């Protein structure tokens, strides 16, 4: 190569963003084989590649495709988003094969809520501002509809909270008192209160404090509603509800979330595992199979993310105890199997696509080597099929009957994004590139992207889940956008002046809820301090005027004094604390039954989990 060509090549490489990762012997990012053969936890520090490596172009070709792939991801988003607006709004979701819409998890224009913060991450502030107005004008929670408590929380409450905290960055004119007040925050609070134990008919009002899986938004829990709920449907509230308590000043949200977490912790087996489904009235396990996948997954996720968000060492200690039991009983050759929660014997040698979040979660606790080894196992399945089948039989190395589909789930891409931030390993970019190509080739249709019903013959299903825009596309974009504001390391920030002083926001450290809605931890601490000062003034006024206090001191004390100490031994349940415009839709369609948990049907010969994985039909 002529020397004159080396100079521009070197300049191009120098302009490439440097990544964080585990340094190899020469200070560069390690080869993927490092993770297969060594047990050295990488340190998180910038990679300093030698100039010779930059000039002579030894970086894998994937690195040079980052800007191009990022634009392809953006085009994917707008093809799906525009198709939803044109064909499905104001319904919850798009049906891409028939180019119309239908309600799924309620009747909230769910895809619009789920996609809102993705718009800002992609840089579209004008559309973000427009959608904020549309949601305020069109979404109503006083409706006679049965809604999943779990999905309403992670998608609706989580999406509105994230959009609220990102409003100022998106150019929305915020009201005085923001981020501790605002219209989207009030909408999130309204939705969450539909789930609270204000009366005997609402979701969290049970003898154990563990919530029902389904609630009618107008009438509460229906008579005859099943008390059996999955573990994730009980333990996936602390991120959203603690955020609500901090922003609104009402500790009841965080209180009920902590009660639910603690009841699950107290219900673990003697060997430290939790099952899949539990009776929320009796606290007895109905499905006694333990794993990290469907029905359990986000419970573990929220112990870690709740610990980081709230700087809560006790939540992290709980997860680390679970992690020991998981490694002792479910971990085999860098796969995770299902086992009987009391005996630890294998009940199902299957990898589920929902389990692919686990390497990303491991990266958050610094367990990079184990995370990469498991990720590489999962990636081999992706490369075998061009996607992750819902169930994969590990011994047979093939899909499970009737679970061959890929509904465009984000979990493996999510793990790739987290691990790439931690290591800079270009293998992770290869997964992202493969995902873009697979989804475009197999799933893209005229009206959006369709769920893949069968990865073997590429048959499609007439559904595009809202999480495709909330999670899958978002994580892909962030994987290929290392300088996005979400990845801020504190080098920049926004200063917001309040009557109580200066608040620093947007400095980074965003915590994604399980629907990939980012929460700024700084806002929680800013508003919590503000609300506590307001409570002190209110207390003084009540004492002066001898007025009846409207908030129980015990609830405030719980919030101020920090989290509860987890019990030393499992198995004992105690009673929770007492806590005191029309839309022009298409012609009405018959409503399909709603799922109360993120469960997956399992009807093959390996159906050893009984009623854990029920079909929604």
TrEMBL record:
Q: What class of enzyme is it?
A: hydrolase
SUPFAM superfamilies the record matches: Seven-hairpin glycosidases
Question: Which InterPro entries does the record match to this protein?
Answer: 6hp_glycosidase-like_sf, EDEM1/2/3, Glyco_hydro_47, Seven-hairpin_glycosidases
* Keyword Glycosyltransferase appears in the UniProt entry: no
Q: What is its EC number?
A: 3.2.1.-
Entry cofactors: Ca(2+)
Q: Which N-terminal residues, if any, form the signal peptide?
A: 1-21
Question: Where does the record place the region Disordered?
Answer: 555-601
**Name of the protein described by the UniProt record:** alpha-1,2-Mannosidase
Q: What is the lineage of its organism?
A: Eukaryota, Metazoa, Chordata, Craniata, Vertebrata
């Amino acid at each position: 190569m002529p020397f004159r060509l080396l100079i521009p090549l070197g300049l191009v490489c120098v302009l490439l963003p440097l990544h964080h990762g585990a340094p190899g012997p020469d200070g560069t990012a390690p080869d993927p084989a490092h993770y297969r053969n060594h047990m050295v936890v990488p340190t998180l520090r910038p990679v300093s590649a030698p100039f010779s490596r930059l000039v002579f172009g030894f970086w894998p070709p994937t690195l040079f495709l980052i800007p191009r792939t990022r634009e392809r991801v953006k085009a994917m988003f707008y093809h799906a988003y525009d198709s939803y607006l044109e064909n499905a709004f104001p319904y919850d979701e798009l049906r891409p094969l028939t180019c119309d819409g239908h309600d799924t998890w309620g009747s909230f224009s769910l895809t619009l809520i789920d996609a809102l913060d993705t718009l800002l991450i992609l840089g579209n502030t004008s559309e973000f501002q427009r959608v904020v107005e549309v949601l305020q004008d069109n979404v109503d929670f006083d409706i006679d509809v049965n809604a999943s408590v779990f999905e309403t929380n992670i998608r609706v409450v989580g999406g509105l909270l994230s959009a609220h905290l990102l409003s100022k960055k998106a150019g929305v004119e915020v009201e005085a008192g923001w981020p501790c007040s605002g219209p989207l925050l009030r909408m999130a609070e309204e939705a969450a209160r539909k789930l609270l134990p204000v009366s005997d008919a609402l979701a969290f009002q049970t003898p154990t404090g563990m919530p029902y899986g389904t609630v009618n938004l107008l009438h509460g829990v229906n008579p005859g509603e099943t008390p059996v709920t999955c573990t994730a449907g009980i333990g996936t509230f602390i991120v959203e509800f603690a955020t609500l308590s901090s922003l609104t000043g009402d500790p009841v949200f965080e209180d009920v979330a902590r009660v639910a977490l603690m009841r699950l912790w107290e219900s673990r087996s003697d060997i430290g595992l939790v099952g899949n489904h539990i009776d929320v009235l009796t606290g007895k396990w109905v499905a006694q199979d333990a794993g990290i996948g469907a029905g359990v997954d986000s419970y573990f996720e929220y112990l870690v993310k709740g610990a980081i968000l709230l700087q809560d060492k006790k939540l992290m200690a709980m997860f680390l105890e679970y992690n020991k039991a998981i490694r002792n009983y479910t971990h085999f050759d860098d796969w995770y199997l299902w086992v009987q929660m009391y005996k630890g014997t294998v009940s199902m040698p299957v990898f589920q696509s929902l389990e692919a979040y686990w390497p990303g979660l491991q990266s958050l606790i610094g367990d990079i080597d184990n995370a990469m080894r498991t990720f590489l196992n999962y990636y081999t399945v992706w490369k075998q099929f061009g996607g992750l089948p819902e169930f994969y039989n590990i011994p047979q190395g093939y899909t499970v009957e009737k679970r061959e589909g890929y509904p465009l789930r984000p979990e493996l891409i999510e793990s790739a994004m987290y691990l790439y931030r931690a290591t800079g390993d270009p293998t992770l970019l290869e997964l992202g590139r493969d995902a873009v190509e697979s989804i475009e080739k197999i799933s893209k249709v005229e009206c959006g992207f369709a769920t893949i019903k069968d990865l073997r013959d590429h048959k499609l299903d007439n559904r595009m889940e809202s999480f495709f825009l909330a999670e899958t596309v978002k994580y892909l974009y962030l994987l290929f956008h290392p300088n996005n504001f979400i990845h801020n390391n504190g080098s920049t920030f926004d200063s917001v002046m309040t009557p109580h002083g200066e608040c620093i926001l947007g400095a980074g450290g965003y915590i994604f809820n399980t629907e990939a809605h980012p929460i700024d931890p700084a806002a929680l601490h800013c508003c919590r301090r503000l609300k506590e000062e307001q409570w002190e003034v209110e207390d003084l006024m009540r004492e002066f005027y001898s007025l009846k206090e409207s908030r129980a001191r015990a609830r405030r004390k719980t919030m101020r004094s920090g989290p509860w100490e987890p019990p030393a031994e499992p198995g004992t349940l105690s009673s929770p604390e007492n806590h005191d415009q029309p839309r022009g839709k298409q012609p009405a369609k018959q409503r399909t039954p709603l799922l109360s948990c993120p469960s997956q049907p399992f009807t093959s010969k390996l159906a050893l989990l009984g009623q854990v994985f029920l079909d929604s039909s």
